[in-house]
Amino acid sequence: MHYIAVAENAHDSCITIANDCNIILHLEIERFFNHKRYRFNKSSTLFSIISLLIHELKINDNITFIISRHNGEKLYPEIIEYIYRNFPKSQIEEVQHLDCHASFCYLTNFDDALVLAMDGGGDYRIPLHKANSFIYHYKDKKLNFIESPFNQGFDGFDGKLWAIIAYKLFNDVNAAGKVMGLAAYGEFSEQYKEVFLNNKFSHLGWVFDRESLDRLCSYLDVQTPHDAASLAFTLQKMYTENLISTLQNYRHYSDNLVLTGGCALNVIANTKLGEALGYKNIYVPSCPGDEGQSLGALLYYFSSQNKKMPITNLPYLGRGIENSPISDSIYKKLTELMLNGKVVAWHMGRSETGPRALGHRSLLAIPTTMELKTIVSEKIKKREWFRPVAPVVLEEYASDWFDVQYSSPYMSFTAKAKPKTKELAPAIVHADGTSRIQTLSRSHNPELHELISRIYEINGIPILMNTSLNCAGFPICDTEEHSQNFFVSTDVHILNINGKVYIK
After folding, report:
1. Rounded to two decimals, what is the model's pTM?
2. Domains of the chain, with CATH numbers?
3. How many C-beta neighbours within 10 Å does residue 115 have?
4. Which has the least CB within 10 A, 52, 185, 213, 224?
5. Is residue 273 within 8 Å of 246, Cβ to Cβ?
6. Between β-strands 494-497 and 344-347, what pairing exists: parallel, antiparallel or unpaired?
7. How would you list the strands of the sheet with 129-139, edge to edge?
8. pLDDT digits (tens, 9 = 90+) for 240-294
9. Separation CA 246–CA 240 (nearest Å)
């Protein structure tokens, strides 16, 4: 039996394919078309990709199709017709949007956990209210819905508000990450606080057209770059405080917390939530947003059928070949070049699942100078000056360089940089003194661990700059061809593809 889970979504369409034992492939469609946050705008496009994948993976027609959808929405008739016409032995199952997000709890080793699924979309599980956030209790390998925390006054402070502020500051509803980065340069504003607490913002409704966005943004007076940063800071602070006060009401359920949905990409809130409420463990998957919807749908279905969960090797579920060994001479050459300030485009094995570079499609450089950070972030990637560059740090040395609260293999938390980190690795320390760290174990990524270890033996710093292998506005490179095109078209110095190195 094979399983094909599909999530069209309003953005970030994706497909996951599995058999009874393993996740075979998770494909973020933006990478297939090299179009950031791509969504299926035509059913025919979806059908073509499914047919292509079935052919390439040699899947028979005994398939269960699992479709993610918002509760209250019906499946498009053309999807049903396509499946039953081409795969008459197949069956179709449906999973609600926020249940898909929440189902990443099945990948944890927790006996129980509180689960918060929150984004800018939602479901009509509560009559007459389309909620953007749901609370669940995961216990005895079952996911039990509790309620929508809008009952606790939380409505409004969710992913939709972030989208509105992103539109105000960057003319892009999908630029919440930029808002988070800019916040470090601002200060709290009572003026913006009053606007956020205004009824126009506390109950945002559901329409997301340009006229509504412009109307809401007209209440926000932003005249200077400092105003923009302070708007971002005020949003981050109020969002985080509201999240903490809301989840305090559910703290008694468990010492373990699972955060999913697009809002779980807010590393500042994730970290402060753990500090304030003292959770023993917090799990955030590598793909908590809509880019992981189809995988979540598949996990939910397996649980609903009391099936054993398929082996899911997060985060490396994308396209690509299995890792090839890197020779000693290549490691030596890369170490020498990087210590001399060269930037490496690092392409290894199967691509990461999720929006962050996690060591298979990464731009890597030593973190010792701000000049090199500028080269990586602004000259090569064409990003704005205020955006931070994250570090990847050897897990065994992480606590020597950062105040680490939780393991962070997927860049899900921030950590305060210690004084020696600010001195010796300034390129990965943001304006607020923190870093969005990736903690790297040898078992998780032996090739990158070996490279960093060799550099550490020479310069005493177990850290590299690690940012995604793409230019601003484009998806992370997926195939070898994508990485080769990136190498040719940018100022990056070195390209490594599975141990084969190209040097300009």
Report:
1. 0.95
2. 2-100+290-305 (3.30.420.140), 159-240 (no CATH), 328-503 (3.90.870.20)
3. 30
4. 224
5. no
6. parallel
7. 142-147, 129-139, 112-126, 256-260, 281-283
8. 999 999 999 999 999 999 999 999 999 999 999 999 999 999 999 999 999 999 9
9. 10
